[in-house]
Structures are given as structure tokens and as C-alpha cells.
Amino acid sequence: MNLCGSLREEPPDHALGRSRGGLSTKIHQLVDGRGRPLVIALTPGQAGDSPMLKPLLADLAVARLGPGRPRTRPDVVVGDKAYSSRAIRTELRSRRIRAVIPQPSDQIAHRKRRGAQGGRPPAFDATSYKGRNVVERSFNDHKQWRGIATRYDKLAVVYRGGVVLRTITIWLRE
Predict the structure, then answer these.
(1) Which run of H or E residues covers position 49?
(2) Would 8 be classed as within a structural domain?
(3) What is the number of structural domains in the chain?
């Protein structure tokens, strides 16, 4: 990804979800190549990851150093197997964004089962995919704050405030 993004506004209780352990919240984010969050969104804990990619990309706006409109299209999206769907790949292709997303084994088997009708496998750059750990390290950076890791806040808006505050401190550290 590339530098500094916007933050989604959501109703206060929108991001509280139920799980076996009780109330839960999931943090979704786009990060740059150095692990700094660009766009952050919260959803209920039971929500999936892949449906959030489109809203996160829609909120991406990276200010340019000189004059000009903010940049809204990253060069590359590196994601895990959860983001390997035809809809996501089509969306990224239509926006001219290169996708570095591995295919799950069931999709590979389905394509092979169809034979020539299955089409070609999507391009995958294994070297670029090695950089995906930057996203995981960014999440680990957030979880170093006790309030984010333990999730004591009852309101999602307060929890989101802590996540945004942690994002600010990550950016100030640079």
C-alpha cells in the first residue's frame, strides 16, 4: 500500500459482535510497506474479512508530497487465502491493482477438475507475498497496547478511539 489514509465512521455499537467468548470486535486495516496503518475499520467479531476489502479500498486516500489529488489506488494488494475470490480479483483488476493472493487448495482442485474450461490459474508472485508478514506485524503492534488486546471497552466507538490513538503513535514513531 502507500501512505496515510482515512478512517471509517460507524455507529457506536456497530462493531460489537458475539462469539463464544462474549463480545468481540475485529479490526480491519490497510497498511503501507512499513506496517503503518492507512485505513482502519471495525466490524463485529463474527464478520468475514473479504467483504471488508472493498470498503477499505474505497476509503484509501494518500496525500501527495506536492500538489495534486490524493492517491486512491495502491500498486499492489497482498492478501492471504481468505481474499482469493473471483469477485475480489475482478474488482482489483478493474481498478488496475495487482493482486498477490494465493489460491486455496479447493479452488485449485475445482479449476483442475473442470479441465480446459477451468481457465488459467491467476498470477502469483511468491517473492512479493513474503512481504505479507508486514500486515501481521502491524496487528501485533496494535495488540501491544493492553486496552486493545484485552478489549475491556463496552462501546465500539471507545475501542475504535484506542485503535486510532495507537495508529497515531505508530505514525509518530517514524
Answers:
(1) none
(2) no
(3) 1
